[in-house]
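Model: You mentioned two targets. I'll fold them one after the other.
Researcher: Yes, keep them separate.
Model: Target one:
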Amino acid sequence: MKELDHKKTVDLLNTIMEFELAGVVRYTHYSLMVTGPNRIPIVEFFKLQANESLLHAQQAGEILTGLEGHPSLRIAPIEETYKHAVRDILEESLAHEKKALDLYKTLLDTVADASVYLEEYARTMIGQEELHNIEIKKMLRDFI
């Protein structure tokens, strides 16, 4: 096994935590902005996404502090497009989920062959983010 790049791993976990916390804000905002006849199930979807983003941020933070890192108090930048049609919100969500997927893939590359636990954590998160991408793409099908 190779040696874990401790600094790079901690920095990535901090970036992931900031990104997931931005997801909490993003998805909460989206849940408040949805209107129309399908509002209730879509609002529920976004509330669930916000809760899951918080859980993901907490998980990354727990691992980060377990590695003796210091969790950031920041969140990743969030761009407000002022487009609140369901299609626009779902497209923004898909872009967000793709970035999250890329972060977890980078983490996997960083910890590969250095930590079985961190590899499994990264793989689990990649699977969850891939599922989110699939779900959002399915939701977007009626709009395309």
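Model: Target two:
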Amino acid sequence: MSDQTQVSVEPNSQGNANLIYILYLVAIVVGITGIVGVVMAYLAKDEARDNPVLLSHYNNQINIFWKYLLYILVGLVLSVVFIGFLVILAALVWFIIRNVKGMQALSRGQAIENPGSWGI
């Protein structure tokens, strides 16, 4: 990993970002929590302007939501030719990994290096 600056994160703010990651993971079973999470991330993003660590996490969470939705939609379209199920499975694995990595970085107080990344 590259040099990542650690900035103190207020406990309440860190808890909010962590809650959004948890809501995303719960969304695998209860889909509506993902929508709640992305709304929370958009609302909290404005308040985190002064904290680059939290801002990177909120940007990461917003990107995770929209990219996962896109991957699932592509998988659903491709399920007509049966390859879509593999795309959906890959999207699910990608979604879980991105959320867990985000939670780990948040617990260490580190920013997400490239929140707009399409990869893991």
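Researcher: Noted. Anything on target two?
Model: Confidence is low (pLDDT under 50) at residues 1-9.
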